[in-house]
Amino acid sequence: MESVPRLYVPIYILIRVSLMTLAGAVIALLLAGASPLARHAGLQPSSRREIALVALTVAFPLACQVIARGPAFTGLRHFTFVVPPLAVLAGIGIDAAVIALSSWRKPFGFAALAAASVYFTWNASVLFRLHPYEYLYYNPVVGGLYGASRLYVTDYWVNIMPEAVYQLEQYLDRTERLGSSLTPHDYTVAVCGERVSFERERYAIELRLKRVRLHWIKNPQ
User: Fold this and answer.
1) What is the secondary structure of the chain as a DSSP string?
2) C-alpha triplet 119, 102, 99: angle, nearest 5°
3) Labelling 117: which of 39, 73, 139, 187 has CA 20 to 30 A away?
C-alpha cells in the first residue's frame, strides 16, 4: 500500500464512483470554465467561482497524493472525504445540464432528467442487491463487482465472515453425512483476516450445535 502507482487513487475513484456522478462532475467543471455554457445553464459568475472552489477540494488532495506518491490504504480509505464534494459537483452539473437543454428544447431537458433518474434508480438497485456489502460496489468501467473480482480490492475487511463460517459448517455437515464415517471430525482453519472475527462466528454456531469442530490455526502447513 505504500508503493502503489502514482495514479492509483484517481483511477480507483474512477472505477468506484457512479458513472452518472462522474459525468455530472465533468459537466460542472465544463460550466465553470466556459462562460457561454454557463449562461445557457443560468449560472452567474459567482456560481462559477463556487464550482471551482468545490472542484479544488477534490483535485488538490488527489494532486498531492499523485505528486508525493503517498500511501493508498485500501484504495479510498483515506480519500473518502473527496466523495461528498464530488457528489455536489455532480448535482450541480446534472441540474445545469437539464436547465440548459430545457432552454434549448424542453423535451430534451425532460429526456435528460428522465435518463439521470433511471440511471440512479438502477444504481440504487445494484446497492440493494449488494446489501449489506454496498461498499463492494464497482461501476461498469470494470464490469461491476463481477469484473473487479480478483483484480481489485473487494471484501478487504472480511465482513463476509459470518456467511463464510456458516457455509463452511453446512459444507462439512453434507460431506460428513456422505462419508463412510459417522464420527464428526475436527478441522483446522486458516483465516486471511482477524482471528477474533472467525472465533466469534465459530463460537456462536458451535454453541448452537453443542460441539467444537473448527479450530483456528495461524500458519497452515
Assistant:
1) -TT--TTHHHHHHHHHS-HHHHHHHHHHHHHHH-HHHHHHTT--HHHHHHHHHHHHHHHHHHHHHHHHT---TTTTTTTGGGHHHHHHHHHHHHHHHHHHHHHH-HHHHHHHHHHHHHHHHHHHHHHHHHTT-GGG---GGGTHHHHHTTTS--STT-TTHHHHHHHHHHHHHHHHHHSS--SPPPEEE--SS-HHHHHHHHHHHHHHHTS--EEE-SS--
2) 70
3) 39
- Global confidence as pTM: 0.77
Kindly report, residue by residue over 172-203, the tens digit of the pLDDT. Answer: 888 877 665 566 678 888 887 778 888 888 88
Digit-coded pLDDT (tens) for 45-64:
788 888 889 999 999 999 99
DSSP labels for 146-203?
A: HHHTTTS--STT-TTHHHHHHHHHHHHHHHHHHSS--SPPPEEE--SS-HHHHHHHHH
CA-based diameter of the chain, in Å? 80
Burial of 142 (0-12, 13-18, 19+ CB in 10 A): middle
Q: What are the angstrom distances between the C-alpha of 170 and each of 138, 176, 185, 201?
A: 30, 10, 14, 14
